[in-house]
Amino acid sequence: MRIAIIGYGKMGKMIEQIALLQGHSIAVIVDPFVTNNASNIQIAKTIAQADFNSVDAAIEFTQPDTALANINALAERKIPSVIGTTGWHDKMDEVVKTIEKTKSALLWASNFSIGVNIFYRIAWHASELFNKFSEYDAGGFEAHHNKKMDSPSGTAKILAEGVLSRLDRKKKIVYETMNRKPQTDEFHFPSLRLGSVPGTHSLFFDSQADTIEITHTARNREGLASGAVHAALWLVTCKRQGVFTIDDVLSDLFKEKI
Predict the structure, then answer these.
(1) pTM for the predicted model, two decimal places
(2) Whole-angstrom Cα distance, residue 136 to residue 214?
């Protein structure tokens, strides 16, 4: 598979490393700040300046304020695209219309880590179990590096919304810091931004008798990059068309609807 990397920051460099280890090649790198190219990889400052004729799929990790324009530009060129940037999901309806109009393919996720996506399912199943025991309160928190642009993280939103839909006694998610006593129907899930933390998400079920804690801690960005490369290969393998998520990839893996 020949990949275009859109955004050559820490994630872009990790994607390049993982893709090469898995036997793929990098055809294009799009980033306005990359000028030094010691290899034969094509470098472009914008998608409009890049030649995608030799590209099978694009993987995009940039910033929330540029993601939508990148999505539109890739869709116009009918490049199957994996979008790892978060903070743009409120424009999902617009993106779906664009993908349908251009008959292209896009796969997005708040977090491409296979470990995180299995963690979701463990946490949601636990929520279903604790839904039967009203003596247990529920809450959590997430922590990321201090360069992260969005808060709460997209991963936190997916996790918290999944818990909320499975706990009947919780009706509202509160992501902000509380300067008051929480209401019993509020699910509190605040954020912390600190140093170089790649990502930690914790969920707690607490009663007077005990506490159950479920935590996923990323050691580095390798899991994100590997999942994104697998997602790109999934898009390309069967020449898919439409909007997909990492759930669709896992459904194929587990041979069941998740």
Answers:
(1) 0.80
(2) 14
Q: How confident is the model at residue 37 (pLDDT cuts 50, 70, 90)?
A: low
Identify whether the C-beta of residue 243 lies closer than 8 Å to the C-beta of residue 96.
yes
Residues in the chain: 258
Q: For residues 46 and 30, is the Cβ–Cβ distance under 8 A?
A: yes
Question: Which member of 24, 144, 170, 230 is catalytic?
Answer: 144
**Is position 145 annotated as part of the catalytic site?**
no
Per the listing, tokens 């309160």 go with 137
- DSSP letters spanning the chain: -EEEEE--SHHHHHHHHHHHHTT-EEEEEE-TT-----SS-EEESSGGGS--TT-SEEEE---HHHHHHHHHHHHHTT--EEE---S-GGGHHHHHHHHHHHT-EEEE-S---HHHHHHHHHHHHHHHHHTT-TT-EEEEEEEE-TT--SSS-HHHHHHHHHHHTT-TT--EEE-SPPSSPPPTTEEE--EEE-TT---EEEEEEE-SS-EEEEEEE-SSSHHHHHHHHHHHHHHHHTT--EEEEHHHHHHHHHTS--
Per-residue pLDDT tens over the stretch 132-158 = 999 999 999 999 999 888 899 888 999
Catalytic-labelled residue, pool 24, 91, 101, 148 = 148
148 is catalytic: yes
